[in-house]
């Protein structure tokens, strides 16, 4: 549509509503998954998930500082995307390992929920840190009371309290309409990415190198760590893919609300246009091979 110079555009108010809807829906589903988890079984994997959820956005931010000339706002936005996770990539990984005859742990959906939020919070924190360097208290208030974090964390708390029975009462809204809202949201993301494609060129080769190499490196480390704490071969592949993936639903919605000055052409093109297909075509079979030989 951008290529043919169409004037199609989702109105700003509608786009913001879609961002709010999707973040709350994702939080609710994650909270329900957490409610159903067995604490003793999931405790160590959850701790590992939190550790990667913290380390990945930090690594992204400083690796990009070394590889590119991006400012702190855009590095923080990218850190939020790569620190969070992709449900579609996760699902593709599950299908792959199940077709390969490998067993996976039932709590992997809980790990998906756990890893959704920390990367987004840290990415936003890092982005805002430079502008509020000498105001730590106001900075933390800005990060944790921002609309995106309140929606995600609040949704998780509500979902965990309500459980699956309570969620069924609102499922027609937050489940039944999710796919349609997501379609409109992704349409606007695509329009923004098309208009901002020049941003990826201006960022230089370093950003392309990062989008290709970083997920493979992180995924390998995650697979090895998962097996070290006793996760199965299939479970370690899916966990590695979780860590290697980049969000293109929750993170863009959060960044849109909390970091409106960040350039969509950078974080959308890298996460959705490069890393996502790379993980599907190369990342999944590579991590499956890697898990089988370590």
From TrEMBL:
Keyword Transmembrane among record annotations: yes
Keyword Ligase among UniProt keywords: no
Keyword entries, A-Z: Membrane, Transmembrane, Transmembrane helix
Transmembrane segments: 12-30, 42-64, 76-96, 108-127, 148-167, 173-191, 203-224, 236-255, 267-291
Matching InterPro entries: Sbt_1 (IPR010293)
PANTHER family linked to this entry: SLR1512 PROTEIN (PTHR40400)
Name of protein: Unannotated protein
């Amino acid at each position: 549509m951008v290529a043919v110079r169409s004037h199609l555009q989702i109105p700003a108010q509608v786009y913001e509503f879609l961002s709010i809807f999707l973040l709350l829906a994702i939080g609710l589903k994650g909270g329900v998954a957490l409610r159903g988890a067995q604490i003793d079984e999931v405790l160590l994997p959850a701790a590992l998930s939190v550790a990667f959820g913290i380390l990945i956005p930090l690594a992204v931010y400083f690796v990009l500082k070394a590889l590119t000339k991006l400012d702190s706002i855009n590095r923080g936005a990218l850190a939020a995307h790569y620190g969070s996770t992709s449900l579609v990539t996760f699902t593709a990984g599950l299908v792959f390992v199940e077709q390969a005859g490998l067993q996976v742990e039932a709590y992997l959906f809980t790990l998906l929920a756990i890893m959704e939020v920390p990367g987004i919070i840290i990415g936003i924190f890092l982005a805002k840190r430079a502008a509020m360097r000498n105001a730590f208290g106001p900075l933390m208030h800005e990060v944790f009371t921002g609309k995106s974090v309140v929606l995600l964390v609040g949704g998780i708390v509500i979902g965990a309290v309500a459980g699956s029975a309570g969620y069924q009462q609102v499922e027609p809204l937050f489940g039944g309409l999710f796919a349609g809202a997501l379609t409109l949201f992704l349409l606007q993301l695509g329009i923004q990415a098309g208009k901002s494609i020049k941003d990826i060129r201006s960022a230089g080769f370093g950003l392309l190198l990062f989008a290709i190499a970083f997920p493979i490196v992180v995924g390998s480390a995650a697979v090895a760590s998962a097996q070290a704490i006793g996760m199965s071969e299939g479970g370690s592949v899916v966990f590695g893919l979780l860590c290697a993936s980049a969000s293109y639903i929750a993170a863009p919605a959060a960044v849109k609300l909390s970091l409106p000055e960040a350039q969509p052409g950078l974080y959308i093109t890298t996460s959705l246009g490069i890393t996502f297909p790379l993980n599907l075509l190369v990342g999944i079979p590579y991590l499956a091979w890697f898990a089988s030989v370590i």
